[in-house]
Specification:
With about 230 residues, the chain is α/β, with parallel strands linked by helices. About 55% of the residues lie in helices and about 20% in strands. It contains eleven helices and nine strands. The strands form two sheets. A six-stranded parallel beta sheet has the order 3-2-1-4-5-6, sandwiched between helices. The longest helix has 29 residues, at about 175-200.
Length: about 230
């Protein structure tokens, strides 16, 4: 059995999408010892990461890799990277793995997974939680949709990126659960805001109210982390 260190050295990764999430994930993987190349449609993004020590290429010069890690705004962009000529369906070596960490449409993910598999490649949806800080520290949460063999193959990479990984089903399942998670986050933001507003109308300082909520059973990750940062 290969040791973790040898698996890292043998796994080559191309990160496509070098925004705050993808860029930080690429740097985290590089720091963990993986061979990482980054690519982005925008030259400014490529230049920023190159200045931080990452090897970068233009989208029309993607290298042969074991893993193509996507961090893109929408399913439309994911589809373009995979299908649009020259896309990963034709560029990626047979047997390589496409890992989509974007917040994507599950129906599109399942459609693309079928095409990827038919092309002799492997698919894993792996949307993340934790934001840019989690991506930079390797402490993301990941929701995995795909088969066990594919997950096992890229586990060293996933472990370097995340503190917690949950396999929730086949292709598209990770994105279904990510949308459910986002639904709950939105609900928690709304109810936390209403609770703080109610207390403020009754004469309680909002900051004091929030501190009290976060010491009680009504607290959540949203009230403890996101609400103070975003509101």
């Amino acid at each position: 059995m290969k040791r973790l260190g040898s698996l890292k050295m043998s796994l080559t990764i191309t990160v496509i999408g070098l925004g705050q999430m993808g860029g930080n994930m690429a740097l985290t993987l590089k720091a963990a010892g993986f061979a990482v190349t980054g690519s982005d449609l925008f030259e400014a993004a490529r230049s920023r990461l190159e200045g931080l020590g990452l090897s970068v290429v233009a989208p029309d010069a993607l290298p042969a890799s074991d893993v193509y890690l996507l961090s893109l705004p929408t399913s439309t962009h994911v589809r373009e990277v995979i299908e649009q000529s020259p896309g990963l369906l034709t560029l990626a070596p047979k047997g390589s793995v496409i890992v989509d960490t974007s917040t994507s449409d599950p129906a599109v993910s399942r459609e693309l997974a079928e095409k990827v598999t038919a092309a002799g490649l492997h698919w894993l949806d792996a949307p993340v939680s934790g934001g840019p800080k989690g991506a930079a520290s390797g402490k993301l949460g990941m929701l995995l949709g795909g088969d066990e063999a594919t997950i096992e193959r890229v586990t060293p990479m996933l472990k370097a990126m995340s503190a917690k990984r949950t396999h929730v089903g086949g292709p598209g399942s990770g994105h279904v659960v990510k949308l459910a998670n986002n639904y709950l986050c939105a609900a928690h933001l709304l109810t936390t805001a209403e609770a703080v507003a109610m207390a403020a109308k009754a004469g309680v300082d909002p900051a004091a109210c929030l501190a009290g909520l976060n010491s009680g059973s009504g607290r959540s990750a949203i009230s403890e982390v996101n609400f103070p940062e975003w509101v």
